[in-house]
Design goal:
The protein has helices at 10-36, 61-64, 69-114, 137-176, 181-218, 222-265, 278-313, 316-319, 323-326, 328-350, 359-385, 403-428, 433-441, 446-459, 462-491, 495-517, 522-564, 575-616, 629-643, 645-689; strands at residues 124-125, 133-134, 389-394, 397-402. With 690 residues, it is mostly helical. It has one domain. It is an enzyme of class 7 (translocase).
């Protein structure tokens, strides 16, 4: 039992994983080249051109209406440059502070892990198999620190590349909207695909290379090898935390400041160039919704992969040194890249968008097609890479598992993700009754609107939680903690498509802002607004995926912690554990309070600055004078950098402090409490905010 081999030989795995990653990178570069064909220069065309396959004439609307095309394009290029500079400046400033934290935390990891055996350089008995000798504690400390830094840098790079691609594509989407909504959609979606495939492929390739390089030293000590690889997931998620918090504070502060003064007090349109906060608002879309989301999903992907690898290393895969089954999580991700590549072609090449009403269904079809194809892909991967029967480590014992059970674990995660995504969309789209009821409640004022909104947010938690619960029950019943880890990976297996859809939204939003600021035709603004509206709806689906996968990943990591700490049961009747449970359940509220207060403080400064400019700059409301955009960008940047540190410190330091002073039992309670509470809070906020 557990010694039967997989159909796919080791050499096949060594070829398949890097080839799929390289194909993903190559495909993203092809998409980028196609987007770059849209030039930010004047391009006059003959009105005699026949209608293209998107159902629109290729000649420009500006030419119909007698506007100066060259001036419009030049304005778009200038605005794009301002947004790109603002976003780049913010990320570089953020990364300076995050870099200091990254180095400090890497030193902490090295000291904590090395001090376990007093920085011993002698081989020691393995944790889970005392009869075998494993590499020394010093080696684990060094390699874990290196993998942490690898994960952190890859996470930061994922966010940065996503932001650069989005700011490169926003004005190009605006210009393509002159030729029809179909061409604008393809430009925005291709740009999102560049980010999605780059992130998925880079994350996979770096992890694969790290495993093979570490293997040169660890050789037959797979327990030590994959334990040191877990630093990769920690590095990715810790950087994602700061990216998400810093970017979120930036974008919401700018958004509130721009809307409260511009739309509410001054009654000017959204993204009006007279609004001093308009550039900061558009920058915020990129640093929050693009860079932040990219780092966030990369963190979940890295953690789920590492959690599955750690459990597999102490199961029959690791015990019998079966390389192909061992890399099953990476093979899932590899096939996911190929599936997402085929799915993307459905949106960009096989089916063309000819009308506004086709945009949202096209994006939803992406999720459905990728899920169906991925189910087939998972079945094939499981059949060729996993033995017909094997054992999985389950809290001190080895659980007998069959390959079809493992397939169901991954598939249930994949389909649970789709259900969570569509339920989240149901509660956040204006096409359905929940949002229509909230809109109807506005007839009697803001108070009833807030009450209805809160109720909707709480109600939106119900079905996603049941979906997560079913996924946990099925996957744990079949394959213990390994099952939960691969279920999370199943949910994230179509990450390239999910990110493409998610990035599409802010790119379209920016495109609409640029059209407004450049003074383009109202017909173009209508098209970009239609793209943006579809993007806002599908962005909620992306958030649902992120929350669901984070819940499963957290549980898998919790299981790994409990196993490593030799805790057999987490007994809530024990005072230490119960205290930890209550405190842990409180932490998401403390974290939310800190971030919301930070947004409020930053928004207050932004509102005051926007009001000051409207009141003191002569001719601003008449459009004769340009506002001081740079000051508003600086306010959002300074506030978000300053305010992201306390929430980040709360999350990173709590486990260290609790574990050091109160022991692992209390810490297990804190982790369980924060996991259960955090899922409810985030899901309800997702429904309420959207």
């Amino acid at each position: 039992m557990g010694t039967s081999s997989a159909l796919l030989p080791e050499i096949g795995t060594e070829i398949l994983v890097p080839v799929c990653a390289v194909v993903g990178i190559a495909f993203s570069l092809v998409q980028w080249l196609l987007v770059s064909r849209v030039k930010l220069t004047s391009d006059r065309r003959s009105p005699q051109n026949s209608a293209n396959k998107n159902g629109y004439n290729d000649y420009l609307i500006e030419e119909e209406e007698g506007l100066n095309d060259h001036t419009i394009v030049a304005k778009c290029a200038d605005i794009q440059s301002a947004i790109s500079e603002g976003a780049t400046s913010f990320l570089f400033t953020e990364y300076k502070y995050v870099g200091i934290f990254m180095i400090a935390f890497a030193i902490l990891i090295f000291l904590f892990l090395g001090s376990v055996e007093s920085f011993s350089t002698k081989s020691q008995p393995c944790t889970y198999n005392k009869e075998k000798m494993c590499k020394p504690a010093l080696a684990t400390a060094i390699f874990s620190t290196v993998s942490f830094l690898l994960g952190a840098v890859t996470s930061l790079l994922s966010g940065f590349l996503g932001m650069k691609i989005a700011t490169y594509a926003n004005a190009r989407t605006t210009l393509e909207a002159r030729k029809g909504v179909g061409k604008a959609f393809i430009t925005a979606f291709r740009s999102g695909a560049v980010m999605g495939f780059l992130l998925a492929a880079n994350g996979l390739l770096v992890l694969y290379i790290a495993i093979n390089l570490f293997k040169l030293y660890y050789k037959s000590d797979w327990e030590g090898l994959f334990e040191s690889i877990t630093g990769y997931g920690l590095g990715g998620s810790s950087m994602a935390l700061f990216g998400r918090v810093g970017g979120g504070i930036y974008t919401k502060a700018a958004d509130v400041g721009a809307d409260l003064v511009g739309k509410v007090e001054r009654n000017i349109p959204e993204d009006d160039p007279r609004n001093p906060a308009v550039i900061a608002d558009n920058v915020g879309d990129n640093v929050g919704d693009i860079a932040g989301m990219g780092s966030d999903l990369f963190g979940s992907y890295a953690e789920s992969s590492c959690a599955a690898l750690v459990v597999a290393s102490i199961s029959s895969f690791g015990l019998y040194h079966q390389f192909t089954p061992m890399l099953y999580p990476l093979l899932i991700s590899s096939v996911g890249i190929l599936v997402c590549l085929i799915t993307t072609l459905f949106a960009t090449d096989l089916f063309e968008i000819k009308a506004v009403k086709e945009i949202e269904p096209s994006l939803k079809k992406q999720l459905i097609i990728s899920t169906i194809l991925m189910t087939v892909g998972i079945a094939i991967v499981t059949w060729i890479s996993v033995p017909s029967s094997f054992t999985i480590y389950n809290f001190g014992t080895q659980k007998f598992v069959r390959n079809w059970q493992l397939f169901l674990c991954v598939a249930v995660g994949l389909w649970a993700g789709l259900i969570i995504g569509f339920v989240t969309e149901y509660y956040t789209s204006n096409a359905y009754s929940p949002v229509q009821d909230v809109a109807d409640s506005c007839r009697t004022g803001a108070a009833t609107n807030v009450i209805f909104g809160l109720a909707l947010g709480y109600k939106s938690v119900i079905i996603p939680i049941f979906a997560i619960a079913v996924a946990i029950f099925v996957s744990f019943s079949f394959a213990a903690m390994y099952g939960i880890a691969v279920a999370a990976l199943g949910m994230l297996s179509t990450i390239a498509t999910g990110l493409a859809i998610d990035a599409y939204g802010p790119i379209s939003d920016n495109a609409g802002g640029i059209a407004e600021m450049a003074g383009m035709s109202h017909r173009i603004r209508e098209r970009t607004d239609a793209l943006d509206a579809a993007g806002n709806t599908t962005a909620a689906i992306g958030k649902g995926f992120a929350i669901g996968s984070a819940a499963l990943v957290s549980l898998a990591l919790f299981g790994a912690f409990v196993s490593r700490a030799n805790i057999t049961t987490v007994d809530v009747l024990t005072p230490k554990v119960f205290i930890g449970l209550i405190v842990g359940a409180m932490l998401p509220y403390w974290f939310s309070a800190m971030t919301m207060k930070s947004v409020g403080s930053a928004a207050l400064k932004m509102v005051e600055e926007v009001r000051r400019q409207f009141n003191t700059i002569a001719g601003l409301m008449e459009g004769h004078t340009k506002p001081d955009y740079a000051t508003c960008v600086k306010i959002s940047t300074d506030a978000s950098i300053k305010e992201m540190i306390p929430p980040g410190a709360l999350v990173m330091l709590t486990p260290i402090i609790v574990g050091t002073f109160f022991g692992v039992e209390t810490l297990s309670g804190v982790l369980a409490g924060s996991l259960v509470s955090g899922v409810q809070v985030t899901e309800s906020f997702s429904g309420y905010v959207n």
